[in-house]
Amino acid sequence: MVIKRIGILTSGGDAPGMNAAIRAVVRTALHYRLKVFGIRYGYQGLVDGDLIELDRGTVANIIQRGGTILGTARSQAFETRKGMARAKKIVDCFGLDALVVIGGDGTMRGAQAFMKRYGVKIIGLPGTIDNDLYGTDFTIGFDTAVNNALDAVDQIRDTASSLERLFFIEVMGRKAGFIGLAVALAGGAEEVLIPETKTSIPELIKKLNENIKKGKKSNIVIVSEGDEAGNAFTIARKVRQVLNEDYRVAVLGYIQRGGKPSANDRILASKLGNAAVEAIRKGIFGCMVGEVDRKIVYTPFKQTYTKRKKINKGIYRIIRILSE
């Protein structure tokens, strides 16, 4: 089958670098004389038939912009048989020969289901700040999220040192500790709590107490939002019950998603966007395009969300050593 028209959408949470990926897909497709249609607001736009044709001008000057020009949403309608059937009609109506979907595990699950039920040709790109998709060393948006969080940690460190207080800083990541680990190492945190390791409040209290006795003026604990011991407020209160020290909690939240994508995210998004179109031309579908050891790889959709991406325990060990 000759591919002539492709659709592209961004789904789930937005991630810095999505626009760079859109740009790369569109311009690579146009290079090969393919028509590209942007699907607005993710799978919901496919259900509603909310599509626009994209050209070079449409994607001009967007590589440096955060968010996504196509908009993004989570679609309950697409999860139903009726909604998915409607989406298939839209694909046929616009004559789309293939789809490029950019997002996290929910996006890949949706692609797998759509492909399996209706045989739609789909290829995915990893767009999520959480970096939790199996099949790529880094996801689009992760590096920017880490840098955004790090900027906040650096500023909080100034206050923590001046007031000699404990700070518990909560970062995003859902059930994955990749952001927490990276921010803790780069920010010189005294401790990091992540979902992949068991949190011992007594051990945390012991370490913080030792730091205070050593004369440390600031103690920063990075808490991943999905930690099994609870959120940053819960953990801080547990520590305060034993260690009678003044503390503050900072939940960084959505500031981690916003802003201009970093150089690393722009480069990764551009490489993967280009690779997605090249894969389509080769007839490669049903998988996510990622980068492992600086090489382009293709991982079946189902593996991206059923296989557990492991954290680097070496980084966790380094943080512990350097915080002594």
Q: Your description of this structure?
A:
With 324 residues, the protein is α/β, with parallel strands linked by helices. It folds into two domains: 5-141 and 261-306, 3-Layer(aba) Sandwich (Rossmann fold), CATH 3.40.50; 143-257, 3-Layer(aba) Sandwich (Rossmann fold), CATH 3.40.50. 43% of the residues lie in helices and 18% in strands. It is built from eleven helices and eleven strands. It has helices at residues 18-31, 42-48, 81-93, 105-118, 142-163, 178-187, 201-213, 232-242, 263-282, 301-306, 313-322; strands spanning 5-10, 35-39, 51-54, 98-103, 122-126, 166-171, 191-193, 219-224, 247-251, 287-292, 295-300. The strands form two sheets. The protein has a seven-stranded mixed beta sheet, sandwiched between helices. Strands 7-8-6-9 form a four-stranded parallel beta sheet, sandwiched between helices. Helix 1 (18-31) links the parallel strand 1 (5-10) and strand 2. Helix 2 (42-48) crosses helix 3 (81-93). The longest helix is centred in the middle third of the chain and has 22 residues, at 142-163. The radius of gyration is 22 Å and the shape is elongated. The model has no long low-confidence stretch (mean pLDDT 93).
